[in-house]
């Protein structure tokens, strides 16, 4: 991997590589640079036979605040990153010790297993700035409760870790996220590399079908919405910490 400073730190211990989102200045928002660095780190994991599984975590009190509105990645780049997580032939485990918003929830949907602390909170905030959770729906919709997702997609409401477990966004939650993850990581270390690879393929086949079928259309939708007048108003209002013009 490159020796230059990146926005994703990597460490390895006993078969598990931990990738840490490390962009605290923007609450680990999905900038073009962070998306590229995370993709590079995942590629390196896929080439390393010592990697049994990958843990994706974060610095600070926010796993990811969603798309970086000042330097967003192209929709196609985010689609490629999400598909890379789903298609990686090692399990990817999300470790959440903070809050997750909008596009950051796409990362959770792409991971195979996800755990959070009870203090974490979640929200699909896209609708409140005039866009839609388009490309992140590729991994999320096949894996989450449709009635619950309809509510949270349409309202942008905040919900807690217990609700995230109930609707299928999280696998588990607890007061101590590392204690909640301990049996998961122990199980992965006890599993054969071949067994993990082939089992993950079984689990992700339907999700990858959604990518192959819908990625182009949803990328186009995302690009169209982000270039719209309502999105411009919504993003400006967000940055200016005021309500957008449509709020009643």
UniProtKB/TrEMBL annotation:
Pfam families referenced in this protein's UniProt entry, alphabetically: ECH_1
Domain of life from the UniProt record: Bacteria
UniProt xrefs under InterPro entries: ClpP/crotonase-like_dom_sf, Enoyl-CoA_hydra/iso, Enoyl-CoA_hydra_C, Enoyl-CoA_Hydratase/Isomerase
Matching CDD domains: crotonase-like
Organism name: Streptomyces aureus
Family, as annotated: Belongs to the enoyl-CoA hydratase/isomerase family.
Protein name: Enoyl-CoA hydratase family protein
